[in-house]
Amino acid sequence: MPHKKVAIEGIKALTFYADRKTAARRTEAIPQLQCLGKPCSKFQPPVIQCINAGLDDMGGVQWRCDTDLPSGVRLGRTDVSCEGWSRAGDKNVLQGKRLSSPVDLLY
Q1: Which subcellular locations apply to this protein (predicted)?
Q2: Strand (E) or helix (H) holding 14
Q3: Which of 5, 4, 10 is nearest to 92 (CA)?
Q4: Fewer CB atoms near the end CB (10 Å): N or C, the chain?
Q5: Domain locations along the chain
């Protein structure tokens, strides 16, 4: 199946799975989720969904991410990153599962 590109600002929602890797065209596939922080030693979210919340003043997509977490644990910083179609920072990305999200869990 040939690769297709899509504008990142046109993506409405993304779902990341802890047990899956990204699709890749220019780079190596990596895990879709990377859990950081002390709670990760006891709990790692199996799935996180991120919704496109609009563009910031620099034209970058702002993502609002959510998942079910145990009581007393919350999402900290969540960074959604992608492999640009032609180069790093390209506004066009590979269609399909091509993003990864480091997730910081906090007590």
Answers
A1: Endoplasmic reticulum membrane
A2: strand 13-17
A3: 5
A4: N
A5: 5-106
